[in-house]
Amino acid sequence: MYICICNAVNETAIQEAVGNGVRSFRDLSAQTGCGTQCGSCVKLARDVMDQALLDIGSPRSDVKLEIVSHG
């Protein structure tokens, strides 16, 4: 399933990024581009990343991001 439509990032790409050492959403964004355009994918991408971290026995990232509209 695609998580980030803007950058064509799917669940597998997020899981692979975690397998390659990604441990924070900042790192995930830098590696995949996830969450760098419209931001609507951030919560789901973070959930997928956190689950992948749990699956490999790594603690979840503890930095919480929030989308804030300035409009």
Biggest beta-sheet profile: 2 strands, antiparallel
What is the helix fraction of residues, given as a range?
40-55%
On the 0 to 100 scale, the average pLDDT is: 90
User: SSE order, as H and E?
Assistant: EEHHH
> What is the global morphology?
globular
Q: What percentage of amino acids are in beta strands?
A: 5-15%
Distance between the termini: 31 Å
Radius of gyration: 11 Å
Strand order across the biggest sheet? Answer: 1-2
Structural class: mainly alpha
CATH topology: Arc Repressor Mutant, subunit A
Low-confidence stretches: none
CATH superfamily: BFD-like [2Fe-2S]-binding domain
H/I helix tally: 3
Q: How many domains make up the coordinates?
A: 1
- The CATH class, by name, is Mainly Alpha
Q: Per CATH, which architecture? A: Orthogonal Bundle
Number of strands: 2
Task: Explain what the structure shows.
Strands 1-2 form a two-stranded antiparallel sheet. The mean pLDDT is 90. The chain is 44% helix and 7% strand. With 71 residues, the protein is mostly helical. It is globular. It contains three helices and two strands, in the order E-E-H-H-H. The protein has a single domain (2-55), classed as Orthogonal Bundle (Arc Repressor Mutant, subunit A). A hairpin with a 4-residue loop joins strand 1 and strand 2 (9-10).
